[in-house]
Amino acid sequence: MQTQTPNRKKPDWLRVKAPVSKTYQETRDLMRRLKLNTVCEEAACPNIGECWSKKHATVMILGSVCTRACAFCNIATGRPDQLDPHEPEHIAEAVAELKLEHVVITSVDRDDLEDGGAHHFARVISSIRMAHPQTTIEVLTPDFLRKEGAVEKVIEARPDVFNHNVETVPRLYPSVRPGARYFHSLSILKKAKEHAPDIFTKSGLMVGLGETKEELYQVMDDFRSADVDFMTIGQYLQPTPKHHPVERFVPPDEFAGYEKMAYGKGFLMVSASPLTRSSYHAGDDFKKLQAARFAALKKAAAS
């Protein structure tokens, strides 16, 4: 069993207010009524109060039980749920009722399914398009256990953003993400961009797990080799004493340095802060991504 360093307290920059707003409760009630899972709750995200108060939620499809047991993740592991055939329609109903401008769809790992759940992702995207076509859609996918054609199936459904997180540096995969392979995750991002160059690609890292700055810089280079558009970097927080310990709390000025370095390497968009998570401010960031691409194209045309 892994345990966190005794008496280590979160620094002030990681403290957030408890959710109390009326809109937060309304969002929570809607998710309950439609029987939807959210990664906001399942992964104990520290930003849930802020996001749900703005009617922002990251919907988790394919059930609430994961077939893997990553050392950083608070989502339940075990025998997975049966697929809900009505889940795509329920999600589309929630998106329409909340009148979302941007929605993030993620999932548990479903290594038991023939395609890892790729077809279900595609159905969710299509259902949202039909119910509320003005909503932009971001998917945060698992690695589909290297199942042939899975990434292509999701991309062909035309999400606006394809996100797959590498989570940590290659050296730490055996202890942090033992069921995955770093270079396979990179290949997913590269394949997505090659299949649809106009779709934004995105990936994220947690820090505070024992990585070095040099290792982070190498991951940035690997992302750029895969033509990733958008990178996120956030502080890892240990969900329970059974999970991987926090090696250190990275101060805000160090995150600012990572952001500056990443922009210098050519990313269209970078979000780096202690509370940054993959879907944190995703809608606002999507608009910034579009503006950054337009500016880059304009600059290239003028040169």
Please explain how this structure is put together.
Residues 1-7 have low confidence and may be disordered. The chain is α/β, with parallel strands linked by helices. It has eleven helices and eight strands. β6, α9 and β7 form a beta-alpha-beta unit. An eight-stranded mixed β-sheet has the order 1-2-3-4-5-6-7-8, with helices on both faces. It has one domain (18-302): Aldolase class I (TIM Barrel, Alpha-Beta Barrel). The protein has helices spanning 22-33, 39-42, 48-53, 87-98, 118-131, 150-156, 173-176, 182-195, 213-225, 252-264, 282-302, and strands at 37-38, 58-61, 102-107, 136-140, 161-163, 200-207, 230-235, 269-272. α5 packs parallel to α6 (150-156) and α6 (150-156) packs parallel to α8 (182-195).
Quick structural gist:
This protein is of the alpha/beta class and 303 residues long. The protein is built from eleven helices and eight strands. The chain has an eight-stranded mixed sheet with strand order 1-2-3-4-5-6-7-8, with helices on both faces.
